[in-house]
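In this supplementary section we document a worked example of the pipeline. Step one takes a protein sequence of length 321 as its only input; no multiple sequence alignment statistics are reported here. Step two produces a three-dimensional model, which step three serialises into structure tokens for compact storage. The input and output of this example are shown verbatim.
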Amino acid sequence: MFLLYDKYDAFFFVNVFRKRQTACKNLRMDVKSLESSFFMRKKQHYHQLSEAERFLIDYLERHLSEIPEKSIVALSEEASVSTATITRTMQKIGYTGFTAFKIHIKDEISDPDFDVIEKVDNEIKKAILKNEQEVTNTIHQLDSGTIEDAIQKIHFARRIVIFARGFSELIAQEMMVKLQLLGKYAEMHNDPNIIPTISKRYTSKDVVIFISLSGETAELVDAARVCRDKNVGMISFTASRSSSLARLTEIDFVCHKSAVSYFPDYEVRSRLPIQVMARIVLMPMQFVFLNPNRGKEAITGNELFLKRERSFVFASFSISS
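The serialised model returned by step three reads:
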């Protein structure tokens, strides 16, 4: 019978067959999507939930349109349940967490208000990428030879002085405590009136560490000039190799600073890259200071340490993204 039709009829039947195939495929996808929807998950798992978890599920069903604007903390307060209960409930019905639940709900419900979830998700990805670039580029800029020179200088110093201002003070404080735990005499100063004056007390037997993202903090630059004239050993942590501090100090560690700032009107950029540099420089010191006989071994093995740090950072950001 089929031979009685002309070629146009044949094309017609082929197209009909293809459309039926596509329709069946879409139907299977719709069924699968329905099975994984919030309402189906509720139906499947409701009997397994505790009383508090059931109350939360019922609350969510009544307030689905408000979900895009809700944080887990706000939901916790409004639904009178703990954040732990929210997370546990989401996991019991098949979501990894509250954020994953919101993303799935966005796909299930056609509502312009849910676009805010996608915007927030994109901003989170941008923030992760920004930090990844800063950290990985900073690690690639580090040189094991420079780290070895810094460790030797700090190891043989009579006292170690750290100058920092603003957000950099947090890194300076941590560095001071760790050096003290390693048995070194270390002090930290952040007062703009004290730094230029006290810098005149140090000698060639001391080491002064400057921490400044811009490398142009006025009080630190003035103190560096004083220390240079007195032949004091100096190490700087900055984000610019052409900065005044980097040019004045003998050893300069330069981190990568992103051009993006979430607060452009204020100097509150992230000090994460400097934090990473400080950690990498300090870590090998425990082997040098606490194991004098293995000092050279620890320093010469610093290339392996840097490789391990790079691998750790790449793995961390891969998991995050």
